[in-house]
Design brief:
- With 419 residues, this protein is of the alpha+beta class.
- The protein is 25% helix and 29% strand.
- The protein is built from 9 helices and 21 strands.
- The strands form 5 sheets. Strands 1-18-20-21-16-15-19 form a 7-stranded mixed sheet, with no helix packed on it.
- Strand 9 and strand 10 form a beta hairpin.
- Helix 1 packs parallel to helix 4 and helix 1 packs parallel to helix 6.
- The relative contact order is 0.17.
């Protein structure tokens, strides 16, 4: 009996993209490598109205995809929101006093309660004596009065009101300590490994800490998970109890960012988490350990501008694009298309498209039968400044196996071809 034994399957590994000049090999319908581009600013340009004291602070370098970057911030992390690429980091996983950056986690828990219907924006919550006596930043809630949840959220994120946080925590969980348990559980669920909360406000306490990377994590989750409430962070001011207060985030007031939060303690210095979107590209930044509010505003604006000027998001290929056609053994079709199952978007320093290498890796020939979606290989993308990126390749079509006569003919053809 003639057996249709498959020939040896050899690894196929070849570069199919080395620079943007070969991009048409990847993209469907002849689409070239696309990027969200930003107009570069002059090198070393400082933002307008920069704080005069910022230059007096000794700078030390942070790590970035394009080399060291001097910053007086003690802790820093800048992330591309769409791809998750880390553009810059400095002691990003070190535990730091987060001060009022804590309130982003408080807001996340509150927003979750709103989403679940356990809290309503037009609902009023009672003000306890503990909340009324709370020191630090305040929205000045009335003792034994009631305050709308919507007002409390504005007081928390715009005025950084510690009193608003306590009213919300007690209203949601019965006590601040119970609310803090919800905060810690949520932080663990979001993978914030270097965060632990002792209160809902960021008031200095032993065992209360976050890392700069965790600050960007909660910021990105606020933007992604609760878009219907994110607008609170962009409001430039709020008037309550006949007292008007401006948003403490200078970048929001100037229209440079649309959120999120500032903070200050003696131990942690001045901190800022900001997010900004330009031409469809969003950056999230956390800095802390600055010596003054002016230095915080200056450095925040400078680093946001640095991120937009130096990086772009490039679409390498799209979901469903055919990357190659692999030979098939004993199939009704001679080849099977290899397709990617997701868009591949890269964050790259400007001009790096010409340096990206893409290698196609699969074993050939592919024995029939083959079903659509069957994993067959991978793309390996390298030289992006990050670790290699691996993208699975799957079969883009079914290929049935030949019948007995067809298989016999194929085997005979193979044997004759060897003579």
């Amino acid at each position: 009996m003639l057996r249709a034994a498959a020939p040896g399957r050899n690894p196929t590994r070849r570069a199919i993209l080395s620079g943007a000049a070969s991009a048409l090999a990847l993209l469907p319908a002849g689409r070239a490598l696309a990027a969200h581009r930003h107009r570069p600013a002059p090198a070393g340009a400082a933002p307008a109205n920069a704080g005069a004291d910022a230059s007096a602070v000794p700078a030390s370098p942070a790590n970035s995809l394009i080399g060291p970057v001097d910053t007086p911030a003690r802790w820093a992390c800048i992330v591309d929101y769409t791809t998750g690429a880390v553009l810059l980091e400095k002691a990003a996983d070190e535990r730091m006093p987060p001060s009022s950056l804590t309130k982003m986690m408080t807001a996340y828990v509150v927003f979750g309660m709103l989403r679940a219907g356990r809290l309503k924006l037009d609902q009023s919550l009672p003000v306890s004596e503990k909340a009324w006596r709370m020191q630090g930043s305040k929205m000045f809630v009335p003792l034994q009065g009631e305050v709308l949840v919507s007002d409390l959220i504005q007081g928390m994120v715009i005025q950084s009101g510690n009193d608003a946080c306590i009213v919300l925590a007690e209203g949601v969980a019965g006590s601040e300590s119970q609310f803090v348990s919800l905060m810690n559980a949520q932080a663990a669920q979001l993978g914030m490994a270097n965060s632990h909360f002792m209160n809902a406000t960021g008031w200095p306490a032993d065992g209360h800490y976050m890392s700069a990377r965790d600050v960007t994590t909660i910021a990105m989750h606020l933007i992604h998970d609760f878009p219907e409430y994110y607008h609170f962070f962009a409001e430039k001011g709020f008037r309550y109890n006949k007292i008007s207060q401006e948003n403490r985030n200078a970048l929001v007031v100037k229209g440079i960012a649309d959120g999120l939060k500032t903070g200050h303690t003696d131990a942690g210095g001045y901190g800022l988490c900001a997010s900004s979107e330009r031409n469809g590209n969003r950056i999230v930044m956390a800095i802390n350990g600055l010596p003054s509010s002016n230095a915080r505003a200056f450095e925040g604006e400078r680093l946001l501008e640095w991120g937009f000027v130096n990086f772009e998001n490039a679409t390498l290929t799209h979901n469903g694009a055919v990357i190659d056609n692999a030979p098939v053994w004993l199939g009704h079709a001679p080849t099977v298309p290899l397709v990617v199952t997701r868009d591949v978007l890269l964050t790259l320093p400007h001009g790096w498209q010409n340096r990206v290498h893409v290698v196609l890796d699969y074993k050939s020939p592919v024995p029939a039968p083959i079903v659509t979606g069957q994993p067959l290989g991978q793309l390996v993308i390298s030289n992006t400044g990050l670790a290699d990126i691996t993208v699975p390749l799957v079969a883009g079509a079914d290929v049935a196996r030949l019948g007995l006569f067809g298989r016999a003919s194929a085997v005979l053809g193979q044997k004759l071809g060897h003579h």
